[in-house]
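Question: Hello, beginner here. Any chance you could explain the protein record under this note? Any guidance would be welcome.
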Amino acid sequence: MKMAVNVKNRNVEKSPLKGFIGFFKDLGAETHRITWPSKEDTKKTTIVVLAFCALYIIVVAIMDYGFNNLFKVIFSKM
């Protein structure tokens, strides 16, 4: 297996400012490539998330109420 023989060791120093500016240029380019959801899709997804959160709150509240009453019954007999 042959190895590369004529490899020059380059010490290229980049300016920190160029790296910083390049980052934001690339960030802008990537942001333009994103396929954003439509307004209707965003509304539907938001409604689904809020409905799930409301359902979760109701389930946790019912369980809390049940366990609270259970502990009252258990500790009232002691």
